[in-house]
């Protein structure tokens, strides 16, 4: 029986949300982030893991990846999983969003 291939989570190539606890020198060190906020009536590709804090969070030896994406209407999304090779996180209309989001 063949082994099931393991999906590689997309890497966060850059994050410019400098006030986030997981951001160190534009690199995300959260092991995995969640994109999208289902509780928001206007569906936006927010970084749901963003945490404005003075403490350093995450794992310093890890570059963050996308663990889950709630943006079902994104062309990179299949089964609520991101299949983009990498993403960029930054500011869109004063909130921290996945800037790689592209409506299907």
Can you put this structure into words, describing what you see?
The chain has one domain (11-98). Helix content is 0%, strand content 30%. The chain contains no helices and nine strands. The strands form four sheets. A three-stranded mixed β-sheet has the order 1-8-9, with no helix packed on it. A two-stranded antiparallel ribbon has the order 2-3. A hairpin with a 2-residue loop joins strand 8 and strand 9.
- Stretches where pLDDT falls below 50 for ≥5 residues? none
Shape: globular
Q: Order of helices and strands, N to C?
A: EEEEEEEEE
Class inferred from helices and paired strands: mainly beta
> How much helical structure, as a percent, in the residues?
under 10%
The count of DSSP E runs of length 2 or more, i.e. the number of strands, is 9
* Domain unit count: 1
Number of helices: 0
Short description:
With 104 residues, the chain is mostly beta strands.
Spell out the key features of this protein:
104 residues; mainly beta; 3-stranded mixed beta sheet; two-stranded antiparallel sheet
What's the topology here?
Blueprint: E1 11-15, E2 23-24, E3 27-28, E4 33-35, E5 66-69, E6 77-78, E7 81-82, E8 86-92, E9 95-98
Parallel strand pairs: 1-8, 4-5
Antiparallel strand pairs: 2-3, 6-7, 8-9
